[in-house]
Amino acid sequence: MVGASSSSVVNVYPLANYTFGTKEPKMEKDTSVADRLARMKVNYMKEGMRTSVEAILLVQEHNHPHILLLQIGNTFCKLPGGRLKPGENEIDGLKRKLCSKLAVNSPSFPPNWQVGECVAVWWRPNFETVMYPYCPPHITKPKECKKLFIVHLTEREYFAVPRNLKLLAVPLFELYDNVQRYGPVISTIPQQLSRFQFNMVSSSTMELLPEDLLADILRRLSAHDLAAARCVHSSWRAVIDSHRLMQLVQLPLAGIFISFNDHAFSELLARPVPPSAKVSGKVHQYMPTTDPIPVADHCNGLLLLSCAYVANPATRRWATLRFPPPSFPISWTGFPRYDYIVFDPAMSPHYEVVTIPHLPNKGAKMVDARVDGWEWPPSSMMLPVFSSATNRWEERSFERQGEALGTVAEVRQPWPGDEQYGVYWRGHLYLMHLFVCRISLPSAKYRAIKPPDGIYTSDGQERRLGRSEKGVYLASIASSPGRRLRVWILDESYAHPKWVLKHQAELTHILSHRSCNPEARGSWVMEDVNYHFYSDRFPDYSGQAPPEDRFEWDFDNDDVLDMKDTTEGRYREGITILGFHPHKEVLFLSESMRRGLAYHLNASKLQDLGNMYPTRYDDFADPHRLISLAFPYTPCWTVEFPSNN
To answer: More exposed terminus of the chain, fewer Cβ within 10 Å: N or C?
Structure first.
């Protein structure tokens, strides 16, 4: 016998005890059986006989043993395992293969593969598909030796299956003598296991940790691992939800999504993070369309995409919004309409999307001349709301709290309003368009909040609403010389919320006084989604370099720029606000679309994020190069997803 255990008793636990997720695809090296045999022949000439190991993983359903099989395509099934490296130990090699095929890429969920005894040995005499449970006596140089080991599963495991494969639990009675469907190796496993005694362990016999002790252990996990732990068992999910542990964990910043004019897809300026927490902005890789799908809005890890899609880049899952939504009355013609997504994973796996009209500028003509006399915002509005819980749109009546700001004619301005940015904070959605509007979807109430004085003196100012460490923030950068930056925090402890000035500085003075720090080279990486997607446009395209493995970027010490009090030069760069850090009082800036900067409000410190100008962007947008939308992105690792795909 070979392996870590030679016991004839095998504990078999219910399939419901185990959690199954997904991970990056593991593509097959061969496209056909003939290709596989040809590659085997080449390897045989180099290395000699092929030795492979495969695992028999047992679970139970309805008190009957089932074998876990990987399914490729619609018909072919195989045991998890694979070829050993020359000189590799069988047990170590099988564990390596199991980690590659089924383990989670997270240090918080280390696999516990308990390899037992070898239950079968199969031989391949020639470079053919036929294998025998013995080596024919006239064969002196067999081409492959395959060994099957029983692998004992513990009562709790978390599996991650490559997205191009399926993991099936197949009962022994289905495998028995079913050579046509499963082949001779798998179909004879029931006979090979007949000498073992199966101990069917039911869920009721498992000892559970006391709730308070389990909660204390779980609250030490990161957001990524805590979300995964919710799926391990219903009791764990109940503890996490009842103790509101997800609300206590800060979602980490993965990077900044940026939509550039004339790009089909939004780009991600990615922050260096450990590989297990890495998120990609390449949503087109798993969406059901090749049409342009830039990001329209976001909330707590979910992206609202154009063409009526919702996606989670962290879990690579998506859903479709049913369209069309209810229409507005004809008198609202001419009002720009924007969709906003509201999602709070600590409260519910479901999200909502609300369509909200914005005021047109004074140059826009209205279908109904009486509109200019309306009070704004109106005392009530009927708004379309999509709920993933019901998978449909409905009209909801929202009532205004507090007073209106004036008539439509008085509130409208000669220039267009602010960009579409929604901020979710403590159950409310905050929008900014000539004023700030606070909306509560559960109570169907909203309130108009006056902006700080002087923020709308001209259309040349840069304005941005955002969420950060202490709540809702508002930043503005004046277009006049000096580029004066002002940042306010919304104080809602009063009957009428008011803005409190947090910080002000002359950005021109700060940026023109910085000098080059040779150690500050900017570590953030632009994914260049559009350049790689449209690679056929560029004859000199050389492919995408593999990303470097880096440690997590430090917001306190990495890539800090020197600030020296030298003679001020003439600063000519354009400054654009990219958004607020969700957990630190840091404002992200773009310098002429070339460099990304992190500006610390409390220390007036600058960090260089790196190059943010997309590769060959001039070929896409010349001469109209601009950023149409940008926001810092925090991933959500919650596995549940309504209308999951």
So the answer is: N
pLDDT of residue 416: 60
Q: CA angle, 623 as apex, 619 and 629 as ends, to 5°?
A: 85
* Residue labelled with tokens 């050579």: 179
Q: What values do phi and psi take at 17, rounded to 5?
A: -70, -20
Phi, psi of 33 (to 5 degrees): -65, -40
For the chain, what percentages of helix, strand and coil (3-state, to nearest 5) are there?
Answer: 20, 35, 45
Question: pLDDT tens digit string along 97-146?
Answer: 999 999 987 766 788 899 999 999 999 999 998 999 999 999 999 999 99
Question: For 387-418, what is each residue's pLDDT tens digit?
Answer: 998 888 999 999 999 999 999 888 887 766 55
Going 519 to 523 to 526 to 531, the CA torsion angle's sign is: positive
* C-beta separation of 245 from 215 below 8 A: yes
Instruction: Name the nearest CA neighbour of 85 among 116, 53, 107, 61.
Output: 53
In whole angstroms, what is the distance from residue 84 CA to residue 222 CA?
35
Counting every residue, how long is the chain? 645
- Dihedral pair phi/psi, residue 459, rounded to 5°: -85, 0
Longest dimension (CA), the chain: 99
Q: Are 318 and 293 in contact (CB under 8 A)?
A: no
In 3D, which of 92, 90, 95 has the Cα closest to residue 80? 95
Question: Backbone phi, then psi, for 201, in 5-degree steps?
Answer: -90, 120
Map tokens 């970027």 to a residue: 553
Look at residue 184 and give its three-state secondary structure. helix
Q: Which residue has the tokens 């780009």?
A: 267
CA dihedral 158, 161, 163, 166 (to 10 degrees): -120
The proportion of the chain whose per-residue pLDDT surpasses 70, expressed as a percent, equals 85
In the numeric block, which tokens belong to residue 427?
């159950």
SS3 label, residue 392: strand
Distance CA 145, CA 53 (A): 9
CB-based contact 239:229 (threshold 8 Å)? no
**Cα gap 482→570, rounded to integer Å:** 10
